[in-house]
Specification:
The protein has about 500 residues and is of the alpha/beta class. The protein has helices at about 10-15, 55-75, 80-95, 100-110, 115-135, 170-185, 200-210, 225-235, 245-260, 285-295, 315-330, 350-365, 395-400, 415-425, 440-450, 485-490; strands at about 25, 30, 35-40, 50-55, 140-145, 150-160, 160-165, 190, 220, 240-245, 265-270, 275, 310, 365-370, 375, 385, 385-390, 405-415, 430, 430-435, 455, 470, 475, 490-495. The mean pLDDT is about 95.
């Protein structure tokens, strides 16, 4: 991190930072109707960040009622696209202006390095809001090719009230992936952030109000998944629910949608993505460094992380040695230090989960090439070394289950067919990658790998213009790109008889 943020004392900023964990419903901040709250601690050093409203069914009811009323009145849904565009563009500008505050909240809330929050999370959030704002008046309807005695118009309408449940690993970005297309399409929104990282979602809603989003259109109900999240997914007056999180919770959300009003459900769930390196790739050092970034960025807390590295037999040792060197070069550090590359895991339960998987890998017979320990315990925070397992078999838990931490399972293969079999041999299908100079092999793999995203000679390449989502138990529906509008709009056919 360099430039305008140089010289900032982030510890001093953190000490002076004020947080507000109250819900935001119908344009007003308020505690939970029950009066209940929970204390949010930072994984950076265990400090208390503040009290957060523990919203429940009554709060969700109030938020949905406010969203429904705003939608039916047309406060937002009835605005011309050009007006909504101006507001979303202003919203994006306000996010950029509040970059330092939002980045600090993000780092303290979930532990990522402040340099990443400033360089990645805030700009990506603003870019998403601005892109969908720009897209609003670029989406056209259709005229069907019927006969000369009729005119059939196909138009998009907002679905109505959308509930969105977002995770803690990229709190701002994941929220923006829902907020931007939901609002661009003219819907009203009730957002439930993770209880592990609620503060930036609440601040985003305030910035939206300041930009001109009418009260009741964008509501935020913090709370726990089994209370506030469940109430939102089961609500009879929510027209669509968009969820990002674990596959296990996604299955519950799908059930709640069916049990209630058969609301539209879209799910972006877990992953166990294979990253395949072929022996013919000419720059193995580059591939290995990218593989390390694919699993260690954001402490490995990414649904699309390249958590399974598949290396062809003849280059296994060379690639493994390079990745181990990268891992040793990025020990976990203070997230409020601008030079830190690997921060804290989100909380103590997630840290224990990661350590249990490391123990499982060892007991199943895999060997730890580097890492494997919890560190910096005296800080009061949650830190695990970047960890690389060698000698992993496809049947091991660390090769099949999503760990959501800086833990890489390395497997070997003989040829491309075996690599594809191993790659497809899990319940997930979010992302995959292949590194090769053989164009035929690249296309074969891209076609055969059952994943929503396949990278060739790169990993985690990203742009708001391309859809994000997975196959199999990695979910349904797509975030990003114009395809996201499919989740938040209804198609209407209007048939006019001209005979």
């Amino acid at each position: 991190m360099s430039g305008k943020y140089d010289g900032i004392d982030w510890h001093a900023r953190a000490g002076a930072l004020a947080t507000n964990g109250a819900a935001l419903v119908n344009g007003r901040r308020a505690g939970a109707a029950s009066g209940e709250s929970f204390t949010k601690h930072s994984p950076v050093d265990g400090r208390v960040l503040g009290a957060v409203a523990a919203c429940d069914t009554a709060d969700v009811d109030a938020a949905v009622a406010a969203a429904r009323a705003s939608f039916e009145r047309g406060d937002w849904s009835g605005q011309p696209p050009a007006k909504r565009k101006r507001v979303l563009q202003d919203f994006a500008a306000r996010v950029e202006a509040a970059a330092e505050e939002l980045a600090l909240l993000e780092t303290l809330d979930m532990g990522k390095p402040i340099s990443d929050a400033l360089a990645v999370d805030v700009p990506a959030t603003a870019r998403c809001l601005r892109w969908y704002g720009e897209a609003i008046d670029k989406v056209y309807g259709e005229v069907a090719p019927t006969g000369p005695d009729s005119l059939a118009l196909i138009t998009r309408e907002p679905v109505g009230v959308v509930g969105a449940i977002v995770p803690w690993n990229f709190p701002m970005i994941m929220a923006a992936w829902k907020i931007a297309p939901v609002l661009a399409a003219g819907n009203s929104l009730v957002l439930k952030p993770s209880e592990k990282s609620p503060f930036t979602a609440l601040r985003l809603a305030e910035l939206a109000l300041e930009a001109g989003v009418p009260p009741g259109v964008f509501n935020v109900v913090p709370g726990f998944g089994h209370t506030a999240g469940k109430a939102l997914a089961l609500h009879m007056d929510v027209d669509a629910i968009a969820f990002t999180g674990s596959t296990a919770t996604g299955k519950l959300i799908a059930q709640y949608g069916a049990q209630s009003n058969l609301k539209r459900v879209s799910l972006e769930c877990g992953g166990k993505s294979p990253n395949i390196i072929m022996a013919d790739y000419p720059d193995l050092k580059r591939a290995a460094q990218a593989a390390a970034s694919a699993i260690f960025f954001n402490q490995g807390e990414m649904c699309s992380a390249g958590s399974r590295l598949l290396v062809q037999d003849s280059i296994r040792d060379e690639v493994l040695a390079e990745i181990a060197a990268v891992a040793r070069s990025m020990p976990p550090g203070d997230p409020l230090d601008a030079s830190t590359r690997l921060g804290a895991l989100v909380d103590e339960p997630q840290t224990q989960r990661v350590m249990e998987y490391i123990a499982s890998g060892r007991s199943d017979g895999a060997s730890v090439a580097v890492g494997g320990r919890r560190v910096r315990e005296a800080s009061g925070g949650c830190y695990v070394e970047p960890t690389v397992f060698a000698g992993v078999r496809p049947d091991m838990r660390i090769a099949r289950e999503e760990i959501f931490g800086p833990v890489l399972a390395t497997l070997s293969f003989k040829d491309l067919d075996e690599a594809i079999r191993i790659g497809n041999g899990v319940v997930y299908g979010l992302a995959a990658a292949i590194w090769t100079r053989d164009i035929t092999a690249a296309h074969r793999a891209a076609r055969a790998l059952r994943a929503g995203l396949v990278y060739v000679n790169c990993y985690d390449a990203d742009d708001i213009t391309v859809p994000f989502g997975g196959f199999k138990q990695s979910g349904t529906g797509r975030d990003k790109s114009l395809h996201a509008f499919d989740k938040y709009t209804e198609l209407k056919t209007t048939w006019i008889d001209l005979s």
